[in-house]
Amino acid sequence: MSDFSASNLSSPNDKVGLASLTEWLNYMQQIHVSAIDMGLSRVLPVAEALGVVQSAKDDAYVFTVAGTNGKGSTTAVIAEMCKAAGYKTALYQSPHLSVFNERVRINGEMVSDETLIHAFSKVESARLACDLTLSFFEMTTLAALLIFAEADCDVWVLEVGLGGRLDVVNIIDPDMTVITNIGIDHVDWLGDNVEDIGREKAGILRQGISLIYGATEMPSSVQHAIDEKQATCYQIGQDFSYRDIDSTTWQYSNAAVTLQLPRPALSLTNTVNALSAVLASPLEVDISAIEHALHTVKLAGRFDYRESHGRHWLFDVAHNEQGVEFLIAQLLPFWQQHVAKHSSQTDKGMPKINMLFSMLGDKDIDMVVQRLTQVGLPISDWYLAEIDYPRAASTEQLEGVLAKYIDSDNIHECDGLHAATHAVVEASQPQDLIVVCGSFHTIGEALSALTV
User: Do 310 and 218 fall into the same domain?
Assistant: First the structure.
């Protein structure tokens, strides 16, 4: 717990210049000494003062989703299915790509700046009354929960930010839990092995509820938590499964049903986990709602194909081993289709891949680069820039890793993601594919540059 005292802070309502969302977000980033400060002892009294804990218990059905990768896709599919079934559905995700409002949605729509500011003001008043400091993530998560409570949402779909046991989302007791998978990530906070990480993620379990476990391998620490909480576990490969039928159709199976369904734009594994969570819940979601949701669900930055500035773009937030393996598995067949479609443009040459790349400095940059350079993809050139974020890897750090695997003539360092985005447009041809990956921040800054 930080010894930084909130009692010395005046209320933001007394300050000039906290009228806009940007000013509120800047303010909340400055009032706590740590960007990440895990634990529930500080946040729980503020949450209770706001009444969000009791509101969730009394009025909503809560899905909580943890895991190393796939949380965003899984929560998006759950929320889309519940919305399609007619439930007023709240969705909380993090981080965002372009605007903060992306994190807080009701029935698929981002809440307004005014709604967020109203909630931030209430959270700040409760924080000061409790004489506590809260991190940016804690403040903003509490605001999201307050918005959901005041909107009287039927279903809350909550994405855990980091770990599970000590994440602020875990102040809300879930009715259904999902752990998508467990890999090595955030080792400074969660541990450097799957047993420790699994123990943290399994902290979202409650007595007697259900868990959807979305990987075929389960750490013993997770099984121990399941046994201790007397939870019911449904695991992929054992209790439910899926198979491809063709490019537009797939089949889902569990002990009770077999469904032939339209292929969504998101990962089938994450979709299967989400569908299993919905089917295991008491919510009334029929096949037509499921099919509608699979046709409409989308998530920015997850194998996200777009066309802009006369170029073909593919955005993916892959930044760890599981994420990059998923990107590669999706990219290889996608690239074959792209080549088949555009290689007839013989006067412009064969299509190539240009990579717009940046990562945070505390991620395993070497592993990501090694995998991307050794899978046989025709990556012509890499465009590097430093993310505008405190934990960003420098261009020198990124170039140093890349130089181990590719010729330095194919590495281009740029002054910021905006410059790099426009440089890759100028250097590429209309038939080429530009892949943007490495971090949520990389995607967000590149998307911002493309709006200019």
Answer: no
Q: Residue 181: which of 71, 39, 35, 331 has the closest Cα?
A: 71
With a CB cutoff of 8 Å and minimum separation 6, the contacts of 2 are 32, 33, 34, 37, 133
Distance set, CA 414 to CA 353, 360, 395, 427, 438 (Å): 18, 16, 8, 13, 16
Domain that holds residue 136: 6-296
- Please write the tens of the pLDDT for every residue from 386-445: 999 889 999 999 999 999 999 999 999 999 999 999 999 999 999 999 999 999 999 999
* Distance (Å, whole) CA 354 – CA 431: 11
Residue type, 54: Q
Question: Does some domain include residue 1?
Answer: no
Residue 404: Cβ within 10 Å count: 10
Model confidence, pTM? 0.86
At what angle are helices 365-373 and 395-402 packed, to 10 degrees?
40
Supply the mean pLDDT for the chain.
Answer: 91
